[in-house]
């Protein structure tokens, strides 16, 4: 479901990553977005332009919105396949992407071949100048209504048919005598996987002033800020930490403090499930438990569900590997003297950190087993000093030993 801006909370700013196309006007768009309270990072911060971007330059998922500029110097060039794959993965995993007319025409020209699922506006005709007319309850037209014509200068891709998505605004050429009836599309919103995208027919950056979008135009600037705000409203990022490892019976703490919300939201709930055995839901990211119900050696899936204050949630898993805990000889009772030929009782108390473990008990003299069980009776035919020990083995091979003193 595409939510309108009216249903969103007040903007707090988004983390925006701009894929730089090398055009001189990139700085103007950066200023527009930063003036709106967003934190903007350029791909050139990592030393790459659009035609060099692979997605491996940064943790892309740490961003709320990616702005893909494909004009200027980048117009005749292909983004590397790895970069295309990274962008589609970013959107599928909950991110938002903002595109322009240049992306659609370059796609038609055979560039960025795998990016079709992210590019709904594709056309050859380009008009210069005209008006944008918002659709009532549009996801990005907060402050504008369907009766208002918003003029702009620069190029605009022209089409009445889009590949997919929901039309958010219409376009009419400057010479159109009935702009309120124009079927041409100016903006399309769509959902993809867990994320969503928005493409404007506005050309974007261009080496020609004739086509260049004026990012400083107050109306265009506001529409861009609206776009980023809507795109930033994605599901939270769940990070369960790990993988974790320890001994069964130990106390573990799993930590989700690496999780984060997107856009205006805040995280309010962390729900854990450890191997279907331990579970907890809390407003704090850490969960501490004693693992006595886990039978090592074994590996258990640890699932984390994080929920934000808008009710959106995400699930991520990691693993917990527990090794076997050895049994413990808690007490051993042995007589210090026994009459020759008489029977004497030998007793041992055993415990195990793992609730489900079982064990066997062997009583030994000189390395040979002479009895079994927690309690035994033994007699000795010859007088002398005899060394008696007990050996406890659990069902996973763990061993504990003790000597009669």
User: Hey, roughly how much beta strand do the residues contain?
Assistant: 35-45%
Weakly predicted, low-confidence segments: 1-11
**Distance between the ends:** 75 Å
- Find the structural class using helix and strand composition: mainly beta
The number of helical elements comes to 4
Question: Main sheet, how many strands, which sense, barrel?
Answer: 9 strands, mixed
Please state how the strands of the largest beta sheet are arranged side by side.
Answer: 2-1-3-4-9-8-7-5-6
Q: H/E order of the elements?
A: EHEEHEHEEEEEHEEEEEEEEEEEEEE
User: What is the C-alpha radius of gyration, as a whole number of Å?
Assistant: 34 Å
Q: What does the average pLDDT come to? A: 92
Q: Please give the number of β-strands.
A: 23
The percentage helix is 10-25%
Shape: rod-shaped
């Amino acid at each position: 479901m595409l939510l309108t801006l009216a249903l969103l909370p007040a903007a707090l700013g988004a983390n925006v990553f701009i894929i730089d196309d090398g055009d001189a006007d990139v700085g103007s768009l950066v200023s527009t977005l930063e003036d709106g309270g967003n934190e903007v990072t350029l791909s050139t911060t990592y030393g790459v332009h659009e035609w060099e971007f692979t997605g491996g330059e940064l943790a892309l998922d740490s961003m709320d919105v990616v702005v893909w500029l494909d004009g200027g110097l980048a117009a005749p060039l292909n983004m590397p396949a790895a970069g295309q794959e990274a962008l589609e993965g970013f959107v599928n995993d909950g991110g938002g992407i903002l595109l322009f007319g240049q992306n659609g025409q370059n796609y038609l020209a055979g560039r960025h071949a795998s990016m079709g699922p992210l590019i709904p506006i594709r056309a050859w005709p380009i008009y210069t100048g005209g008006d944008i007319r918002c659709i009532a309850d549009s996801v990005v037209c907060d402050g504008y209504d369907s009766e208002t014509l918003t003029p702009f200068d620069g190029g605009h891709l022209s089409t009445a048919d889009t590949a997919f998505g929901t039309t958010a605004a219409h376009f009419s050429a400057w010479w159109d005598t009935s702009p309120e009836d124009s079927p041409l599309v100016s903006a399309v919103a769509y959902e993809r996987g867990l994320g969503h995208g928005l493409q404007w027919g506005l050309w974007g950056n261009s080496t020609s002033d004739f086509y260049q979008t004026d990012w400083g135009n107050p109306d265009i600037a506001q529409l861009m800020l609206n776009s980023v705000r809507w795109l930033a409203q994605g599901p939270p990022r769940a990070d369960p930490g790990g993988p974790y490892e320890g001994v069964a019976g130990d106390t573990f703490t799993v930590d989700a403090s690496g999780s984060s919300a997107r856009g205006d939201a805040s995280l309010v709930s962390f729900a854990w499930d450890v191997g279907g055995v331990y579970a907890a839901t809390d407003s704090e990211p850490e969960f501490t438990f004693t693992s006595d119900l886990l039978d090592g050696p074994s590996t258990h899936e640890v699932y984390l569900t994080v929920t934000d204050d808008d009710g959106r949630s995400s699930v991520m898993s990691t693993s917990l590997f527990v090794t076997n805990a050895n049994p413990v000889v808690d007490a051993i009772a042995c007589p210090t003297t026994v009459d020759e030929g008489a029977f004497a009782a030998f007793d041992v108390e055993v415990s195990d950190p793992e609730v489900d473990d079982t064990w066997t008990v062997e009583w030994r003299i000189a390395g040979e087993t002479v009895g079994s069980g927690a309690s035994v009776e033994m007699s000795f035919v010859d007088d002398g000093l005899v060394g008696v020990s007990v050996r406890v083995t659990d069902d996973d091979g763990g061993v504990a030993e003790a000597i009669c003193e």
